[in-house]
User: Fold this.
Amino acid sequence: MADVKIAPGGSASVFVLHDGYVGRDGDDERVAGTVTLILDGDAVIVVDPGMVASREALLSALAAHGPQAGDVTDVVFSHHHPDHTVNAALFPAARIHDHWATYVGDRWIDRDADGAELGPSVRLLRTPGHTAEDISTVASTSGDVIVCTHAWWGADGPADDPLGSDADALHVSRQLLLSFATMIVPGHGAAFRPDQSTPR
Assistant:
């Protein structure tokens, strides 16, 4: 993992556009990822544009913060599960970032995500555990260091990821993120501030 020295005081602004969930209204087949907007300088970044109940509601939530779908410059996939990727095409001008490349139109540009900078105060970090290829998006705002990650599904963890690829790697990734994160935007839940009860 990249040498990590991240602190509040950055220029990014972070807005959760959609709180994710697993199971809803008694229906275990319903699943949605948490979708996040990060604004930083000229960068308009959407993290994990995956499954949602309404694409129109997602685009309305985006527009409420100013950008339209065509204004999005970058899309980040924390990993390649469809519930975090399936709506990427809503943002036709965006570069797409995953763990090992950036995709622009028909160009596949190899690069390691670890330490990649998307804006003055936004960078990517390798955080394996849920999958071997997981990355987290770290944004320094004026008062917080906010991490969009699937190292947690929600505020309660779970303590051990039921679909995780590597439990030991997950716990290492969590310890790394907890060393600087003041707010976590998890894969399938509302943003939360970590405390002593946060699964490690």
